[in-house]
Structure to design on (383 residues):
């Protein structure tokens, strides 16, 4: 196994190749063409949104997809309390939401005068995740395949948000993806729908949902909502540490960005390790390492969460892999695994409280899998 000399991605990472100089295709910017095309499109849509006035067709200027995470909380506060936008805050109530995300949403409802809407479809979202996590990954894989469960889940509720905006004639859907995530997301509404059809087929869609999506596919362009990615358009100003500090000072954020707001985080790591031999946040860690390497001791410029400079990321990845796969197989001593997990997350910058929270989630991974209907396999069986 070889590692990129700049960002430490493995030569086995899906969609990534190492050159003779030991530098991976991402560090060589082989994906720059696609990335720039995505950035150009999202910039145009954001500029159009920024110039737009009040929606003449309804009560809301935008549907804002609100998860309770740092990114969406920061922008919801800005759009409503600073920019005066008429915002419909749309939260898809995923059954895997952490208690910390729910607390952030409660704080936002108290302090941000938006209209808050909660949507849900537990059976639908569980069916999607169960299918993705249970079926073998298609090898050799393409870039971002290690994030397929997360991408599939998000696609499901983005489609529901598109349907809601279309029904209520809301012209824009604001999605707070950070610049690292833009490569995992489709910007065009019709392509979002088509992609979901291709991945899961009609069998996962109710009659009502299928009829709505067919209506979307054949609607006129000016009838369709446009997806806005503010953090991508303003990517050079994206600073997660500053955002968390500002939100905490305002009493709008009560968790750690490393925790994530999904209780499936341990299962996502299991999927990545089982199929692709990498931790779920490996691309984020590589992005940070790449940025630090290029900027040396100057200001960090990265499209990801921060990782401590002193952290041994390849070593941490291997240690976490051992614990995750042992937990999936029902092996090992729980007390020792808990100590190891707390140590790993502490080395990655989590507070003591956040490290305990994360470790508890990983120790409960088998129960979460059983509840979802996911069959945990060993690495040997997957091979």
């Amino acid at each position: 196994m070889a590692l990129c000399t700049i960002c430490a991605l493995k030569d086995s990472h899906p969609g990534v190749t190492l050159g003779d100089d030991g530098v991976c295709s991402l560090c060589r910017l082989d994906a720059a063409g696609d990335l720039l095309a995505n950035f150009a499109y999202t910039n145009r849509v954001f500029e159009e949104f920024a110039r737009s006035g009040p929606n003449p067709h309804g009560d809301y200027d935008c549907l804002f997809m609100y998860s309770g995470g740092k990114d969406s909380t920061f922008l919801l506060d800005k759009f409503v309390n600073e920019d005066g936008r008429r915002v419909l805050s749309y939260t898809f109530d995923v059954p895997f939401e952490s208690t910390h995300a729910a607390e952030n949403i409660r704080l936002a409802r108290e302090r941000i005068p938006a209209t808050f809407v909660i949507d849900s479809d537990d059976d639908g979202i569980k069916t999607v995740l169960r299918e993705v996590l249970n079926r073998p990954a298609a090898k050799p894989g393409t870039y971002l395949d290690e994030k397929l469960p997360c991408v599939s889940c998000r696609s499901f509720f983005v489609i529901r948000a598109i349907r809601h905006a279309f029904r209520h004639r809301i012209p824009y859907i604001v999605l707070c993806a950070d610049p690292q995530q833009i490569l995992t997301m489709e910007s065009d509404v019709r392509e979002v729908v088509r992609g979901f059809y291709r991945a899961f087929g009609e069998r996962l869609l109710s009659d009502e949902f299928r009829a709505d999506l067919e209506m979307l596919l054949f609607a006129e362009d000016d009838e369709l909502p446009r997806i806005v990615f503010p953090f991508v358009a303003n990517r050079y100003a994206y600073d997660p540490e500053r955002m968390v500090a500002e939100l905490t000072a305002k009493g709008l954020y009560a968790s750690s960005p490393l925790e994530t707001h999904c209780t499936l985080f341990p299962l996502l790591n299991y999927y990545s390790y089982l199929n692709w031999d990498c931790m779920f946040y490996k691309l984020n860690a590589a992005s940070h390492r790449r940025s630090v390497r290029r900027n040396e001791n100057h200001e960090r410029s990265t499209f990801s969460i921060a990782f401590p400079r002193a952290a041994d990321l390849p070593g941490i990845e291997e240690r976490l892999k051992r614990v995750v796969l042992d937990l999936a197989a029902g092996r090992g001593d729980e007390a020792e695994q808990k100590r190891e997990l707390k140590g790993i997350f502490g080395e990655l910058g989590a507070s003591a409280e956040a490290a305990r929270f994360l470790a508890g989630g990983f120790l409960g991974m088998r129960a979460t899998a059983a509840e979802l209907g996911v069959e945990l396999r060993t690495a040997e069986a997957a091979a």
Observations:
- The beta strands are 62-65, 87-92, 115-119, 172-174, 226-228.
- Residues 297-303 have pLDDT under 50 and may be disordered.
